[in-house]
Write a structure and sequence with these properties.
The structure holds two protein chains of two kinds. By secondary structure, chain A is mainly alpha-helical. Chain A contains 22 helices and no strands. Chain A has one domain: Sodium/glucose cotransporter. The N terminus of chain A is likely disordered. In chain B, 80% of the residues lie in helices and 0% in strands. The radius of gyration of chain B is 21 Å and the shape is elongated. Chain B has one domain. In chain B, helix 2 runs antiparallel to helix 4. The N and C termini of chain B lie close together (9 Å). Classes of the chains: A mainly alpha, B mainly alpha.
């Protein structure tokens, strides 16, 4: 049973495509209770609860709840964005991927990073100039409020739901291995802390949880990478040479392997990663926390730098693990060494590569630190997700769609807090319900939906005069549903999750973004062009005024509205 | 809110200059980003062995500097955009806002 738990942990933590590696992962009993990790984690929890208490006293208005009153500086926001974005999947999953297959890991890192320039050039400043709390503010700026908000809220909530479930299940599995806690306890702890941070501290607390987590994660990862380089006298050549010698795949780890099977899959995956980043509601929401377009730009610059630096570190960490973990019997499951080889025999599966490396280079105390950081990482990401989901419910659905904007701030905030609690409880319930399901496809699906629904609607609402409410609604829903349907029919879900025979999947690619994005863009274009309604004319006529504000920020919602 | 309507701002040559510059620059950099990234992806898809060519006598392969280049280029492109926006767009925007009062 424990072997299965470990296997799932490994699979779930990773983003969808990483799941392919689950089959190569095995072994590792639940660890004995790790007290140094637990005490460091408790210290983190107390620190963040203190911050939440401080933030709660400053969070009295809707603007403060959703966007910290716009009072976050560009640099702070950049660090928070990186904290929001660098999930446990990217830390443990990608370093584990590098550990298992070397160069292939870099392909993912690059994909996760390259979305950021696109966000900078096309999205960040318009978002800040046009929006207030959610990206639906921007998409519905000149379009029919009700339809566009419902669409954007659906897009946001579906993305948040899949991302959240994947994080919760991953958290439970990971914490089980790291801390020796029961799965359900871990899920409940994550869910409850997330609810507390968001309901009491709103965006301000969430931001600081993400900043602290980013600093801890980057320091921990820097230390590990440095320790690895130190071990090899700062000679990359010697690091890579040792890895090539030690790895059963030898020189193959220095070039692209089997991960990217064919060019269509590669391009489709790349599109999901790039454009999905520009459509993730919890990331987009962060741009409303700064006071102006200039600060928004600075945020992305800082975030891109930190995230890029982080992925370079994970590459070194992965190779370090090949050299220092797979050669040390203490980290290997002796039962598996003979059958699977030293790499795959790693205790707890390949996602544990970074964790074992922490122990190898920094001893038990540093192992505890990195374990606590991994837990904190999950907390920071789920808090951002919960806040984005709650805002979609309270700001988009409740305040605008149901109450038509006639609602006072206090009621809206109350709804968002209730929504946060509901989302948190739901996340806990689903997290426990999905314990033994393979949900590894969910992060990939979240990115794919973000790229196929949120991103096209957002981009075209900012830049295309011809966009109409009807076009956005139909095209957006087409993108959303085609993404979901194609993922369900793909090998990752059809075969791996639903247990149908291998090769029977009706849709051949694990990531359908290339197709679902095309459907979304063509759908939006076609139904906008064909739209002869009066609403359509209003939508097109509204473009000029919107574009002036988009470019100049004149009339943009002021920073600290009280 | 500005005293003048958006039509007046649209007629302002500085606004037209800002829109033209920013659009051209933003979309060009986007194209460069996508070109670099999908170039890398196509290389992986069609010529994985090329990325596996060793550099001289080293175990390191061409794939490493190329991958590193893609990562660093993402940051450099963002930096170029931000530097130019800070140097030129902000002052233009300020002037437009002033003139619209």
């Amino acid at each position: 049973m424990n072997r299965f738990k470990a296997l799932f942990a490994a699979a779930l933590l990773a983003a969808a495509p990483l799941a392919a590696f689950a089959e190569g992962i095995d072994g590792g009993p639940k660890q004995t209770t790790n007290w140094s990790a637990i005490s460091m984690f408790i210290a983190f929890v107390f620190l963040t609860l203190g911050i939440t208490y401080w933030a709660a006293r400053r969070t009295k208005s809707a603007a403060q709840f959703y966007s910290a009153g716009g009072g976050i500086t560009g640099v702070q926001n950049g660090v928070a964005i990186s904290g929001d974005y660098m999930s446990a999947a990217s830390f443990l999953g990608i370093s584990g991927l590098v550990y298992m297959s070397g160069y292939d890991g870099l392909i993912y890192s690059v994909g996760f990073l390259v979305g950021w320039p696109v966000v900078t050039f096309l999205i960040a400043e318009p978002l800040r100039n046009l929006g207030k709390y959610t990206f639906a503010d921007v998409a519905s700026f000149r379009l029919g409020q009700t339809e566009t908000r419902i669409l954007a809220a659906c897009g946001s909530l579906v993305v948040v739901a899949f991302y959240l479930i994947a994080q919760m299940v991953g958290a439970g599995k990971l914490i089980q291995i790291l801390f020796g806690l029961d799965y359900w306890m871990a899920v409940v702890i994550v869910g409850v802390l997330m609810i507390v941070y968001v309901t009491f501290g709103g965006m301000l607390a969430t931001t600081w949880v993400q900043i602290i987590k980013a600093v801890l994660l980057l320091s921990g990862a820097s230390f590990m990478a440095l320790a690895v380089l130190w071990h090899f006298n700062f000679s990359l050549e010697s690091l890579f040479a040792t890895a090539v010698q030690v790895s059963p795949k030898h020189a193959a780890i220095m070039e692209p392997g089997t991960l990217v099977a064919d060019p269509v899959s590669a391009i489709s995956l790349g599109m999901a990663l790039i454009f999905g980043t520009a459509g993730l509601p919890h990331i987009l929401m962060r741009f409303f926390t700064v006071s102006n377009a200039k600060a928004a730009r600075k945020s992305v610059l800082v975030a891109t730098g930190l995230i890029g630096y982080f992925y370079i570190l994970t590459f070194i960490i992965g190779f370090g693990a090949i050299c220092l973990v797979s050669t040390n019997p203490a980290f290997l499951d002796p039962a598996l060494v003979a059958t699977k080889g030293t790499l795959a025999a790693i205790k707890g599966g390949s996602n544990m590569a970074a964790i074992h490396l922490a122990s190898a280079v920094g001893g038990n105390l540093f192992l505890g630190f990195i374990s606590a950081v991994a837990f904190a990482t999950i907390l920071a990401v789920v808090s951002g997700l919960a806040l984005a989901g709650a805002s979609a419910i309270s700001h988009d659905l409740f305040a605008t769609v149901i109450r038509k904007g006639k609602v006072d701030e206090i009621a809206e905030m109350r709804v968002s807090k209730v929504a946060t609690v509901c989302l948190g409880v739901l996340a806990i319930v689903l997290g426990i319900a999905f314990e033994n399901q393979n949900v590894a496809f969910m992060v990939g699906l979240a990115f794919c939906i973000a790229a196929s629904c949120n991103f096209p609607v957002l981009l075209l609402s900012i830049y295309w005069r011809g966009l109409t409410t009807r076009g956005a609604l139909i095209g957006g829903l087409l993108g959303l549903s085609s993404a979901v349907i194609m993922v369900v029919l793909s090998p990752a879900v059809w075969v791996v999750t639903l247990g149908n025979p291998k090769g029977s999947a009706p849709f051949p690619y694990d990531n359908p973004a290339l197709f679902s994005m095309t459907i979304a863009f063509v759908g939006i274009w076609l139904f906008s062009v064909l739209d002869k309604s009066r609403r359509g004319t209003i939508d097109r006529n509204g473009f000029d005024a919107q574009f002036v504000r988009c470019q100049t920020g004149i009339g943009a919602s002021s920073a600290a509205s009280h | 809110m500005a005293a003048l309507g958006y039509e007046a701002i649209q007629r302002n040559p500085k606004y037209q200059q800002l829109v033209r510059q920013r659009s051209v620059f933003g979309w060009t950099l986007t194209a460069v980003t996508l070109f670099i990234y999908f170039g890398f992806i196509l290389l992986i898809g069609y010529a994985p062995k090329f990325l596996g060519i060793p550099i001289g006598n080293s175990v390191m392969t061409l794939g490493l500097p190329i991958g590193l280049f893609v990562i660093v280029s993402a940051f450099v492109l963002v930096w170029i955009y931000v530097a130019r926006a800070n140097a030129s767009y902000d002052s233009l925007t300020r002037a437009i806002v002033e003139e619209s009062r």
